[in-house]
Amino acid sequence: MKLKTRWRGVATIATAVALVGAGIATADAGTTGKDAGPARATAIKDPTGGRTGLPGLVNAANAFLATISDDQKAEVLLEFTEENATAWSNLPCAGTCRPGIELGSLTETQLAAAEAVLKAAAGTGKGTGFDQIKDIVAADDILAADAGGSVPGGTPPSSDASAAPAPSGSAGGPPPRGGMALTYGSGYYYLAFLGTPSVDGTWQLDFGGHHLATHLTYTKGKAVSASPFFIGVEPISFTDDSGATVEAMRAQKTAMAALTAGLTEKQLATATLDQSFGDVLVGPGEDGQFPETKVGIAVKSLTPRQRKLVLAAIKPWVANADDATTQQLLKIYERELDQTFVAISGGTALDTHGDYVRIDGPSVWVEFICQTGVVYSDQIHYHTVYRDHTRDYGGEFDF
């Protein structure tokens, strides 16, 4: 599938990153975009100030805030409350079901600064972290072009997931069922800071749109959570403007398929559930709703090689955080492998509607499911979610 023209004339993430890297200096923010920031806002060559980790992220956040107006800051800077933190969705319901400022309302300078924040916050691995964010958003631009931007009416694309309530202090409410307009495209992704970005306080970075919900929580000078993290994609592959094939979720699909392929027939029989699935269980609006009993095959019964496959299957989701946080969380999940279970429903190749894999540990929770495409009904697309039983939203709320 060929990558189509970008939706709504919004600069792509790749373009914005190029602007940052090249140090392109000025854009007349006083005359471009909704609620544009101070006139002739200046892009900083290195918004991180040469720092890495949380200090670099905070510098990038402050550099972004310096490019926007007070009205725009009111959209970006929200209180770190349960209501705001849990107001996210996997649906293409624009800003009616998620907090933050719309990327489509930003000037090129502001957009470059916003995406520098994401680059500082997310991991640097190929096909994960920031690299994956770019590809997910690019896939949504294809949906926008092929669906004419929106699909009016009808039912939401996910049969089980529902739109969360609108964040407090924002306009609108949950999109109406049965008559909602499903809106796709890179302009309909939203960035918010819940709490004030700092190196010693507690705050959360939220970024999301259709098929993407990122929550990174920081407290007392370190990242404490990279979940919940919802990621999906449609189409699952496409050809970009250079002629290269892009598979935005190749890392997740490959790792999960390797895990299922690495089990023996007897182990698969133990891991396979009688239940079938239409979507992830613990998606938006399902905070804390983990099954009481772990099911499937116990990882402690697997060989050392198979145990490594389980850990490798977890990693692509955890890698949505910075590299140091990813390693910290993976060490926790590795220590807990003996109390972790793998469950399967449907086929193991993960290429047919209803194919489903779950990894459930004392802390980690990852779900992967194949669904029939919404716009491309002759294909499948992926829905997945990574959660942590105790660390979601930094463990700030009691679900």
Could you give a short description of this structure?
The chain has 399 residues and is of the alpha+beta class. Helices cover 28% and strands 19% of the residues.
Could you name the key traits of this structure?
single chain, 399 residues, alpha+beta, 12-stranded mixed β-sheet, two-stranded antiparallel ribbon, 10 helices, 18 strands
Unreliable sequence segments = 1-41, 149-180
| Total of helices | 10
* Arithmetic mean of pLDDT: 84
Strand content: 15-25%
Question: How do the helices and strands follow one another from N- to C-terminus?
Answer: HEEHHEHEHHEEEEEEEEEHHEHHEEEE
Overview of this protein structure:
With 399 residues, the chain is α+β, with helices and mostly antiparallel strands. Helices cover 28% and strands 19% of the residues. The chain has helices at 13-22, 53-65, 70-76, 82-85, 108-121, 129-146, 250-261, 265-271, 304-318, 323-335, and strands spanning 26-27, 41-42, 77-78, 101-102, 150-151, 182-183, 190-194, 203-209, 212-219, 222-225, 229-233, 238-239, 245-246, 297-298, 341-345, 356-360, 364-372, 380-388. The strands form 4 sheets. Strands 3, 4, 7, 8, 9, 10, 11, 14, 15, 16, 17 and 18 form a 12-stranded mixed sheet that branches. A two-stranded antiparallel ribbon has the order 1-2. The model is unreliable at 1-41 and 149-180 (pLDDT under 50).
Topology (SSEs and partners):
Layout lengths: L12 H10 L3 E2 L13 E2 L10 H13 L4 H7 E2 L3 H4 L15 E2 L5 H14 L7 H18 L3 E2 L30 E2 L6 E5 L8 E7 L2 E8 L2 E4 L3 E5 L4 E2 L5 E2 L3 H12 L3 H7 L25 E2 L5 H15 L4 H13 L5 E5 L10 E5 L3 E9 L7 E9 L11
Parallel strand pairs: 3-7
Antiparallel strand pairs: 1-2, 4-7, 5-6, 7-8, 8-9, 9-10, 9-11, 11-18, 12-13, 14-15, 15-16, 16-17, 17-18
